[in-house]
Amino acid sequence: MIQYPNIDPIALSVGPVSIYWYGLTYVGGLIFAWWLGRHRAQLAGSPIKVDQIDDLIFYAALGIIAGGRIGYALFYGSGSLVDDPLRIVRIWEGGMSFHGGFLGVVVAMWFLCRHHKIEFGALVDFIAPLAPVGLALGRLGNFINQELWGRPADVPWAMVFPNDPSGLARHPSQLYQFAMEGMLLFGLLFWFTQRPRPRWSAAGCFLLGYGVLRSAAELFREPDAHIGFDALGWITRGQLLSLPMIIVGAAIIIWAYRRDARS
């Protein structure tokens, strides 16, 4: 068993103002996406100009925050946004849904495309490799916050989380998700987009890759206490929400390559 490092969730306090590591992980993810986006925007065939990347990140941030918070309320049954609407901007308190944030970004990118007259399929292919590092950093934020921990385990790297009342050694599933749906997915998408691919195929790979890797990581993650397992005694809410991503992603890839072969 490995000792949990017990990191203070507050990175810095200045008087009454506290800066949380969880919030900083989102900032770090957006900064990385901005940097990589500017680099990719300089390449031949980019659907977006370098001076439009600032707008892209701004729209994406709005979609992540609004979609993530609203998605959490819808998918995980939290009514707190109705009681306290301003909680939607307090992301350092936790309660973010990836699937809601994903839908929020899709809507935000649609508006960005309308505003800048960009082809939607080209843009979603462009942003596919920009997202996973931010997802990885968000899982580090979950780890620091001691939330979304794993199922009980007896592996040598199992951890006892100090705020877990059960006192059980558990899989550090946040770190599994950091590695799988974060860094591994980034490596796959970065490699995939290094050469010209059919339009929409990178977006399809993101959907398929995230859905598969998230579903695999969920096998080690403790389901939300107020939800439990949704089906068959082992299928979680995260797996159910990822299933449409797998199906749609695979369908998009097949369609994109078939369309490219006909052209």
TrEMBL record:
<dbReference type="Pfam" id="PF01790">
    <property type="entry name" value="LGT"/>
</dbReference>
<keyword id="KW-0472">Membrane</keyword>
<feature type="transmembrane region" description="Helical">
    <location>
        <begin position="120"/>
        <end position="140"/>
    </location>
</feature>
<feature type="transmembrane region" description="Helical">
    <location>
        <begin position="240"/>
        <end position="257"/>
    </location>
</feature>
<feature type="binding site">
    <location>
        <position position="139"/>
    </location>
    <ligand>
        <name>a 1,2-diacyl-sn-glycero-3-phospho-(1'-sn-glycerol)</name>
    </ligand>
</feature>
<feature type="transmembrane region" description="Helical">
    <location>
        <begin position="96"/>
        <end position="113"/>
    </location>
</feature>
<dbReference type="InterPro" id="IPR001640">
    <property type="entry name" value="Lgt"/>
</dbReference>
<keyword id="KW-1003">Cell membrane</keyword>
<feature type="transmembrane region" description="Helical">
    <location>
        <begin position="175"/>
        <end position="193"/>
    </location>
</feature>
<comment type="pathway">
    <text>Protein modification; lipoprotein biosynthesis (diacylglyceryl transfer).</text>
</comment>
<feature type="transmembrane region" description="Helical">
    <location>
        <begin position="19"/>
        <end position="36"/>
    </location>
</feature>
<keyword id="KW-1133">Transmembrane helix</keyword>
<keyword id="KW-0812">Transmembrane</keyword>
<protein>
    <recommendedName>
        <fullName>Phosphatidylglycerol--prolipoprotein diacylglyceryl transferase</fullName>
        <ecNumber>2.5.1.145</ecNumber>
    </recommendedName>
</protein>
<dbReference type="GO" id="GO:0016740">
    <property type="term" value="F:transferase activity"/>
</dbReference>
<comment type="similarity">
    <text>Belongs to the Lgt family.</text>
</comment>
<keyword id="KW-0808">Transferase</keyword>
<feature type="transmembrane region" description="Helical">
    <location>
        <begin position="200"/>
        <end position="220"/>
    </location>
</feature>
<feature type="transmembrane region" description="Helical">
    <location>
        <begin position="56"/>
        <end position="76"/>
    </location>
</feature>
<comment type="function">
    <text>Catalyzes the transfer of the diacylglyceryl group from phosphatidylglycerol to the sulfhydryl group of the N-terminal cysteine of a prolipoprotein, the first step in the formation of mature lipoproteins.</text>
</comment>
